[in-house]
Amino acid sequence: MPLLEISNLKKSYAAPDGGTHVVVDVPDFKLEAQAQVALSGESGSGKTTFLNLIAGILAPDTGSIKLNGQELAGLRESARDRVRATTIGYIFQTFNLLQGYTALENVLLGMSFGPGADREFAKTLLKRVGLEAKLNHLPRQLSTGQQQRVAVARALANRPKLVLADEPTGNLDHANAGESLKLIREACRENGAALLLVSHDREVLGQFESVQKLGKLNRAAAQPLS
Amino acid sequence: MTLPLIVAKSLRQHLLSTVVTAASIALAGGLLMAVWVVKTQSNDAFTKQNAGFDAVLGARSAKLQLVLNAIFHLEASPGNLPWADYEDIAKNSAVALALPIAVGDNYHGYRLVGTTTNLFAVEHAPGRKYRLAEGESFLPGYMEAVLGSFAAQQLKLKVGDKFHPYHGLTFDEKQKHEELYVVTGILEPSNTPADRVIWIPLEGVQHMKGHDAKTSTEISAVLVKLKNPIAGRGLELMYNKQGNRLTFAWPIAQVVAELFGKIAWFDKVLELVAWLVAAVATGSVLASIYNSMNERRRDIAILRALGARAHTIFLAVVLECAAIAVLGMVAAFAVYLGITGVAAHIIRTETGVVLNAFAWHPILAWAPAAMIGLSALAGVIPALKAYRTNVAENLVPVS
């Protein structure tokens, strides 16, 4: 059974002209456990909305999202929050670290709403991403690359089955991007998590054995958001 | 641990507004508690204060003026009464002890009260009589003085020191008497108005040079201790209803309570002002948190993306408001002690009545509870805004 199984997923927004604008229309998508898949998508192809639907941050209009055998589409918001807290790790393009929290506290928060805070595991993760000497540093005291590594550690903090990565190297320079991508893939593999990464960077996509075009996957991608 | 961590971090991230808002809560809470405690304690202290006596006999006047003059050593004397009136009441079978007093002089604003050594037989509180802390009592007929503890402390007089009294109840340096009095003793603190008095022999006031010779056998009032307080009813009838020359002020507590009844409106105004200040301070918590919600939206969205439930965020905002109030109310106790300390000093200086800022009063529990509760309630409005934060929209950085 696939880890993630999506069918007939649709999401639309109200358009300024009063009509509706379909952003996501994915008839079928599957992701196996521990698999690593990259989705290529240009700006406006609905990639962030697609990931937010999988993460349960957004509720679909219609369709089905089965994650680890559990149907997310019909769940209430609080139940989707619970699934996200226990099953999903999320790496954002802008890292989205909480600026008032240290590196260690950011990672601890990544597990607090799910399995519960485990200080030793949080330290292990930060050590794994090479930040054992920066545990008590605030994000502003870290370089961009180091912030991205904290974000990677945080995404794995709740021992997720699926890690979603939205343009995770988009804010990094060439050298850091390659290193960071390698780290994300290795860390997911070591922790038994599947990885679904969205990017428009050909170098990033070239690292993956499995790449799918979001333009083909998402029928709504042909009508990009204005 | 997550909620306290989120609350603590948020308080720290918005440190300036946290401190300012907590300070406003501290001022409001301190004022509220101080107003209540000073009001109730002074009411209790004055109405329960009788310096060991049940009644006062004096010239025909308002009972309140008589009590304020003879017990609290405030106000002018309403007039004199002949020595014979003292002798009459002293031998009344219902009277346990009668103490004649004569007033009319002061030393730097502290009253000289002429009396007899029977003063030392008075039990001003159960089991406690006026006792000398140092020195000895004055001798009748001699220019000797025993100072109340507060008067001695303020006037910096000690046993063996000498002073010239001044005529009148308020200090006027042109009104200096020739007589030279020597301090023979200082009383232990009694926490009664007697602490503010300079006690001298009765004859001292009666025969002070410059006083009207016709009044040399008169006294200002008689302080009366009854064998049974109920017996005051009969004496009240005798002096107040059947005669028109003298006034028998009994019971003292009721006379003073009438004064507080007359100024009850002032208490109400004070209470209202204190509550308004508290309401404004609570409103400042709401305004402070609500106005910062825009800059918090991204943090809230990140927490939600990490799996925090909307009600967790709601609770965090409410708890943050309550935490500001807790910090404020901790500081409020310092404000309370400051205000109460100053008020107690003024009241003691002016009346001799002692208030205790450290004494327990229920307001010290329910004012903090009310302020914290109201602040948490005020937090519901920004918390609802936080609850409704659109996660997907706010995960994107604001440029």
Give a short synopsis of this structure.
The complex is a heterodimer of chains A (226) and B (399). Chain A has 226 residues and is α/β, with parallel strands linked by helices. Chain A is built from eight helices and nine strands.
Structure, described:
The complex is a heterodimer of chains A (226) and B (399). Chain A is of the alpha/beta class and 226 residues long. Chain A has one domain: P-loop containing nucleotide triphosphate hydrolases (Rossmann fold, 3-Layer(aba) Sandwich), CATH 3.40.50.300. Helix content of chain A is 34%, strand content 24%. Chain A has 8 helices and 9 strands. Chain A has a 5-stranded parallel sheet with strand order 6-7-8-3-9, with helices on both faces. Chain A has a 4-stranded antiparallel sheet with strand order 2-1-4-5, covered by helices on one side. In chain A, helix 4 crosses helix 5 (144-155) and helix 5 packs parallel to helix 6. The longest helix of chain A is centred in the last third of the chain and has 17 residues, at 174-190. The radius of gyration of chain A is 17 Å and the shape is globular. Chain A starts with a strand and ends in a 9-residue tail after the last helix. In chain B, 52% of the residues lie in helices and 17% in strands. Chain B has 14 helices and 15 strands. In chain B, the strands form 3 sheets. In chain B, strands 1, 3, 4, 7, 8, 9, 10, 11, 12, 14 and 15 form an 11-stranded mixed sheet that branches. In chain B, helix 2 packs across helix 8, helix 2 (15-48) packs antiparallel against helix 9 (264-291) and helix 9 (264-291) packs parallel to helix 12 (363-378). The longest helix of chain B is centred in the C-terminal third of the chain and has 42 residues, at 310-351. The A-B interface holds A 48-49, 52, 55, 57-58, 77-78, 81-82, 84-86, 90, 92, 94, 96-101, 105, 109-110, 112-114, 117, 154, 158 and B 1-2, 5, 9-10, 12-13, 298-299, 302-312, 391-392, 395-397.
